[in-house]
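User: Hi! I have a protein structure encoded as tokens and I'd like to know what sequence might fold into it. I'm fairly new to this, so please keep things simple.
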């Protein structure tokens, strides 16, 4: 019932999970990654949470822009843009919350 190709859903989830794993690499211990998948009457909800470092508030509005990355290495800055475009193309939403305790990306896809 999700209005996108299976490979597109894989691209969304793989990118968000990979980013969470990378963020957790900055913690020495007590790493936590949670993937929550829920179904509501009109939406599918996917939440990917981690307890890595917070994404600074001034950078959060830029996180889905082409070329922006919190990673230091070259070759990053396209994944979240692609994810955002896929989600928006099917009239879904993607949001970010991040503080010192947790970073959470939430994707809502219409049924």
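Assistant: Happy to help. Inverse folding works backwards from shape to sequence: for each of the 111 positions I chose a residue that suits the local structure. Here it is:
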């Amino acid at each position: 019932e999700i209005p996108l190709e299976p490979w597109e859903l894989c691209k969304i989830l793989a990118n968000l999970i990979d980013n969470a794993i990378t963020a957790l690499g900055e913690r020495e211990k007590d790493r936590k990654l949670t993937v929550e998948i829920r179904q509501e009457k009109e939406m599918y909800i996917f939440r990917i949470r981690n307890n890595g470092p917070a994404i600074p508030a001034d950078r959060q509005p830029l996180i889905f822009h082409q070329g922006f990355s919190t990673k230091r290495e070259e070759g990053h800055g396209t994944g979240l843009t692609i994810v955002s475009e896929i989600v928006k193309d099917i009239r879904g939403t993607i949001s970010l919350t991040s503080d010192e305790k947790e970073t959470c990306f939430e994707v809502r896809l219409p049924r």
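A useful reference point when you look it over: The chain has a mean pLDDT of 89. Feel free to ask if any position seems puzzling.
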